[in-house]
Amino acid sequence: MRGVTLKIEGGNDFVIVTARMLSALICRIQGLAVRRFTISVEEIMPRGLEQYLERLINTNRHAAACFRYSYISEDPITKNELYRIVRTQLEVLEMDRTACFQSIVPADAADGDILFHIACTEAFFRVCKDSALRLEYICREGQREIIHRYF
Questions:
Q1: Is residue 11 classed exposed, middle or buried when 0-12, 13-18 and 19+ CB atoms within 10 A define those classes?
Q2: pTM summary value
Q3: Residues paired with residue 119 on neighbouring β-strands, in sequence order
Q4: What is the pLDDT of residues 26-51, one digit of tens each?
Q5: DSSP label of 101
Q6: How many angstroms separate the CA atoms of 50 and 124, rounded?
Q7: Which terminus of the chain has a smaller tally of CB atoms within 10 A, N or C?
Q8: Distance between first and last Cα of the chain
């Protein structure tokens, strides 16, 4: 089985995008007919994970540089800043050293949810729709995780 490698490049920040989050996003893309779509961040980030990451980052912000996120000045961070970190990390997600997304634009929903308007690259869109490909996510520590295409 042919495989494709996904990796978040750039910076020394602690990566909060998980294989499970990518799985949820890819599963959503699989069912689409077009490369542009809107998704609630809560669809890809489980609520328990959100709360855990807020505590983890806020507890360690002054102890370790990887938790400082130079583009986030708020202290302590809240859900909105956490979602900004997710967006920033997804923007640099690469598939075999090629960008996965053309754009990710945040927006507010009427019910208070945070939405991402996403435009996938053509190549990433095709890969997400090809169930014969094995998708692998390389975490910052070098660990490899298989991206499951069901959620």
A1: middle
A2: 0.92
A3: 36, 103
A4: 999 999 999 999 999 999 998 789 99
A5: E
A6: 26
A7: N
A8: 21
